[in-house]
Amino acid sequence: MTKSMDTIVSLCKRRGFIFPSSEIYGGLKGFWDYGPLGVELKRNVREAWWQDMITNHNERKVLEGAADAFSMVGLETSIVMHPQVWKAVGHYDLFHDLMIDCRECKARFRADHVPTSQCPRKPSKPPGEHKECQLTEPREFNLMFKTIIGALSGEEGTAFLRPETAQGMFVNFKNVVDSSRVKIPFGIAQIGKSFRNEITPRNFTFRSREFEQMEMEFFCHPDQSRQWYEYWRNRRFQWYINLGITSDNLILRDHDPNELSHYSVGTADVEYAFPFLPEGEYGELEGIAHRGDFDLRSHMEGKLVRDGDDLVVEQDEHGQPTHRGSGKDLSYFNDQTRERFVPHVIEPAAGADRATLAFLCEAYCEDEQPDDKGKPQTRVLMRLHPQLAPVKAAVFPLIKKEGMPELAADLYGELKAAGITSVYDQQGAIGRRYRRQDEIGTPFCITIDGETTSDGTVTIRDRDSLQQDRIPLSETVTEIARRLRG
Ligand code: GAP
């Protein structure tokens, strides 16, 4: 089935997954709001990531010598950081895209989105406009949003909204080592908002100006960094597969050397075949980067630049550092081997919004099912992984009498009390109620009918197989919890 992005976007709006930000004022390009279902879905995506990285991570496997015998801790750092952070790691000077303006229609484009010397808007303009397209030369545009701290104006009070959460982990490296009992290798994970003043936000939430990242910095000995890089590349790819992305739609692509960021000595992207892309093209969901010791050393010494294979502190024409680091010692001392070194870092950096969008696109499908009168009808369904589905169970009384609503309401209450996100629906024909739940990805629908009142059983209907099983009402909550665990 070919999926249309327009259909998915319209379902997201209609059913309350994602709305344009400030829509009543015409929206704001590059900003999005998550509706009642979207907020649950995105929370589940974040939770699945946090569980995998932190909650379910068992560092005591060290005793068994397992591959994941290392500590993982979480962090939540501020969005506005000391401006020197961005100078020391190069974002202040280097975090830019090249932009091109059309002198005719004043539109602005990212240079890599302008394949020819013509304005990309030209074909859609009425004849007469764009007679002689005039594009400017590419110019640098820094993607960091500026803000002013306190009452100070000008350069003195200028700060930036973070363009990545990663630096929060680097500047706190020493704090974490000193305050917890972690030993290298270990990871620090964070989920939080990041901001980039993208020149051309596009493709729904894929390229936004405000978005959420799920990043982890894994600190290890330089001699073991290659091996950990391989480990995280493979583990992160598998995370998406485990949550329902089919391997046909997902690739792990190694960057060419000329694509690497200024800090990276190796990066691989997890990429998804989004429906807005031409067949055979993929969009980035996550980058797994081998950052070497670039960030910790930059925060110690100042802005580092490449000189052949080495990283050296950038100097101005007077031989002075262009930007200073903190001057603090961010090296690590291994008290068993008595070795002091600056750790290398492997960074899996994922986007919560892009992952959510990929799960939505992957889940969307249509099939033919008979309606209440037996006539074939197209059924729209979201085959979301049960762990991600915003609603886990729906409870329906077959009819609004004979004690069924009361039993259904009690069951609904029990499901909620057990922490299972559920809905209660008694409106309309049962078939329509199923369709409403299929369209938002609810994995299980429970119906209270005439038999419930006589023999105390209910039906559980499975969204994907459509199989209906009859089980005792008293065991329903346990059974739903069991099915959700998989
Ligand atoms: N700390 C490294 C870093 O930030 P990145 O590849 O620039 O690396 C990581 O960003 C992830 O953040 C991307 O793979 C993507 O999922 C998400 N991301 C980046 N820019 C985004 C944007 N403008 N809109 C939505 N998500 C974005």
Keywords, please?
single chain, 486 residues, alpha+beta, BirA Bifunctional Protein, domain 2, Rossmann fold, 3 domains, seven-stranded mixed beta sheet, five-stranded mixed beta sheet, 13 helices, 25 strands, globular, binds glycyl-adenosine-5'-phosphate
Strand content range: 25-35%
How large, in whole angstroms, is the Cα Rg?
26 Å
Q: Give the terminus-to-terminus CA distance.
A: 27 Å
Low-confidence residue ranges: none
CATH architecture of the largest domain: 2-Layer Sandwich
CATH topology of the largest domain: BirA Bifunctional Protein, domain 2
What is the overall silhouette? Answer: globular
Number of domains: 3
How many helices does DSSP assign? 13
Mean pLDDT: 92
